[in-house]
Amino acid sequence: MRRIVTGTEATAIAAKLCKPKVISAYPITPQTYIIEKLAEYVSNGELNARYISTDSELSSIGIVAGAVAEGVRAFTATASHGLVFMHEALHWIAGGRLPVVMAVATRGLGAPWILMCDMQDALSQRDTGWMMLFASNAQEAHDFIPIAYKVAEEVHIPCMVCMDGFLISHTAEPVDLISQEAVDSFLPEFSPKLSLSDEPSTLWPIPEPDTYYLIKKDLFEDHKNALYIWKKAFREWQSVTKRKYDVCCGHMLEDAKTAFVSLGATVETALEAARRLRKKGEKVGVIGIKLFRPFPESDLKELSKGIEELLVIDKAVSMGKSGILFQEVKSTVDIPVRGFIGSMGGKDLTVERIERFFYEGKMWI
């Protein structure tokens, strides 16, 4: 069924279809409408779940972690300072191998205060051990929730599904909503490998250093191996919905000498910039990265074959170094890479600015 909905509503609908039994979140712009809709679904009987209001994001992520540790599928959503307030708990959840799924509507961080979009909040969590998926539009925000549950619960690693605040979260666009029957056929009941409600067990013990080392090694290797599971899940989703996704997607690359690389809503702006540049005779393509963690190194290398230069568009920066996505791309490929801080705090990332970057190559324009 096709409806015109915002990215937040598309996300809430998808979360409902995944049948979480516990939902806990604290309101924060621009994700608030996700949890408002889920609270409405619970209140009117559309969703059989326990909705728990809390005093903070740290409390909500703790409740969700506890629910998943008990063997119950759970959901939460946040943004900006709410996400960084969760930072300590994110490490514990990943280390405890709890397959929590969380929606993140990305927004700039203070100081100074800003309500508009960049990706500093999400990308500053890249080393917490969570898998990270970035939607380019409301359709992907809708589809990526059940796919995230499918993968997270198979590999027992938590996952963030990220969308650009306001640009996706509050923009209404046509979305093909999947049916409950289709989600049920795609996503099995949550069957945790270990639950605190079963045999007596311990979560988050204090191990010997050698054991700690092996635990981290296992998480690292399972992250890498999860790439195969993501690809399999995307193929299964395509068989159910006819919508094709991959961890890394190429556009107009057949004869391209240069390609823009980006995440999220920026992919669609980069596509329009590439089309305009092609009309001027420039052989330009686009690589859109959907899965940021685990990072799709081999896929990016494959898509980059025949490309002479990659131009990375960032919405987050590592102070004193460069854009965060730029670092990931540059460390992966063996061809020249230029980086552009396309937007911070909602500064308009226009097609014209991307064209200027193409010709001038400046990191800040």
Tell me the Rg in angstroms: 20 Å
Number of strands: 16
Structure classification? alpha/beta
Task: Choose one word for the global shape.
Answer: globular
Q: Mean pLDDT across all residues, rounded? A: 97
Describe the structure.
The structure is a single chain. The chain is an alpha/beta fold and 365 residues long. It folds into two domains: 211 residues, Thiamin diphosphate (ThDP)-binding fold, Pyr/PP domains (Rossmann fold), CATH 3.40.50; 113 residues, Rossmann fold (3-Layer(aba) Sandwich). Helices cover 41% and strands 20% of the residues. The strands form four sheets. Strands 3-2-4-5-7-6-12 form a seven-stranded mixed β-sheet, sandwiched between helices. Strands 9-11-10-13-16 form a five-stranded mixed β-sheet, sandwiched between helices. The mean pLDDT is 97.
Q: What secondary-structure arrangement, pairings included, does this model have?
A:
Elements: E1 2-6, H1 7-17, E2 22-25, H2 32-43, E3 50-53, H3 57-69, E4 74-78, H4 80-85, H5 87-95, E5 101-106, H6 120-123, E6 131-134, H7 138-155, E7 159-164, E8 172-176, H8 180-186, H9 209-241, E9 248-251, E10 258-263, H10 266-279, E11 284-289, E12 291-293, H11 297-303, E13 309-314, E14 317-318, E15 322-323, H12 324-330, E16 337-341, H13 351-360
Parallel strand pairs: 2-3, 2-4, 4-5, 5-7, 6-7, 10-11, 10-13, 13-16
Antiparallel strand pairs: 1-8, 6-12, 9-11, 14-15
